[in-house]
What we know:
The protein is an alpha+beta fold. The chain has a domain at about 55-145. Helices cover about 55% and strands about 20% of the residues. The strands form 2 sheets. Strands 3-4-5 form a 3-stranded antiparallel sheet. Helix 1 packs across helix 2. The longest helix is centred in the N-terminal third of the chain and has 63 residues, at about 15-75.
Amino acid sequence: MGSKLFLDKRGVSIPIAIFVVLMVILITTSLFYFSTREKNLNEVLDDVLVLDNFKLKVAFLDYYLENVFEKSVERAGGGYESFINAYFDELENYKVDGVYLVAELEQVENQISNLEIVEGKFVLELELEMVQDGEMNIRYNYVRVFESR
């Protein structure tokens, strides 16, 4: 039962050597591609986060203004001057250490003159400019008409 092991002493065949070299090139190229792609992906994610934060800021502004308007209507009792006083009182609730929670609320103080009473309803049209400078420059015109029920 003597089995003989046949050992080829010629060396590695050419197709195997070419295969190994091509695999090394493929792996190196893939690693390089994934490492550069990750940088681009991080930039895209950063841009998305900046936009999401800005949209969140717009949502907060919208909520705060709606809340201030509704509470002012409740407190005003139908009078123009009483509405304006109530509006400024409610707006003060959104200041912390003398600074508004959303900086654009400061622009509202100059636009309260847009208040009208139409058919017994309060109507306030606000047009605010929201600007964010930094990694991404964003300009947004916030336009909204608030009307009491």
